[in-house]
Protein 1
Amino acid sequence: MKISSLSIQQLIWFAGLAQVGLVMGSLAIPRVLNWRQELVKVQPLIKQMFWTYAAYILVINLCFGLLSLMACRDLTGGSNLAMLLTGFIAVYWISRLLIQFFYFDRANFPAGRRHKLAEAVLVCLFIFLSVVYSRACYLNYVQLS
């Protein structure tokens, strides 16, 4: 169990690094998808809510990343809190993956090789994060049993 715990800690640390990287990359999304021009078409309240939700998602991703970088041992400690938190993060990323394929209207995705590559990298990242945190949740559950 010790080797398994160490490797899951390393994976969580890398997941944290990846999430911080995702946050940095996400700063370009408004420009790439031309949010300012698109949001001119909506009422001010809708625009404010949109920016608020976008900021919340960015901060949550950053917090998950920092938590994973600074507390990877605690996230694998076998406590109820560790199990619930890694489970929550797993559900968050699994949900994001499902949204990518079953909710987003792909007809309006930006065209071009670079955008397709960026989407593929994001999907791989969402899969990686989903698997890492699901595994961590499971290992925490096993330690509790």
Note: The two ends are 14 Å apart (CA to CA).
Protein 2
Amino acid sequence: MRWWRSSDLVQAAVLITLSVAVYTTQLTIFGDPRNTEFYLLQDFAFLPISVLVVTLVLERLLELRDYRQRLEKLRMLIGTFFSWTGYHLLNRLALMDRNLAEYAPALLARPDWTDAEFSRLRATLVDRRFELRVTSADLTTLRPFLNERAEFMIRLLENPMVLEHESFTELLRAVFHLIEELEFRPGFDELPPSDLAHLTNDCDRIYRLLVIEWIDHLCYLRKHYPYLYSLAIRVNPFNPGATPVVGPAG
């Protein structure tokens, strides 16, 4: 890898030439080499401070701005995932959970929720044991649903920004694993209980990751995009009476 391009060398040569020309002009006009040497050394004395400002301060500010831009683009990708796949997949998996009634009311996010409330909800669910009951009929309908969205999720993985979000990458990996497991089976009607238990574990892994990612997504929308948050809580997959239609109260 070449650290210096030809244009960089030309630019450096021009700047050095200009600097020499300025100091030569100063000596010619004022004829005082001691003052010139004094100010030259003074400039060199401030050079480390200039380097500090440029490399440590300005560079960090630029890195922070770049990080925020990447994070915003990544959040857009995650939002697209939920719009096309996440909400529907959550709804399907939630219907398989035998304990849904125990915690579903806690997931009914409201417009006035704060970051602290989302944090508490996340903490209560991150280690929760879900009890999915997956049947052959569930798998029969789940396979075409996931296959229809596989190409979309592959395109998400092709974006290098997605790899910066470890939990979301793990979620996509878990979904693709389930797609592969389902694709290798010609049917599900005659699966032994041991295989159903194995596929249930695969669904449970997705469900656990998806619920936590959904909570983080809601928290982000509430803070940055209230109008998107409004729709997200109106189509809450854990709300049996969810509807995108805005009621009289707004």
Note: Residues 70-234 form one domain.
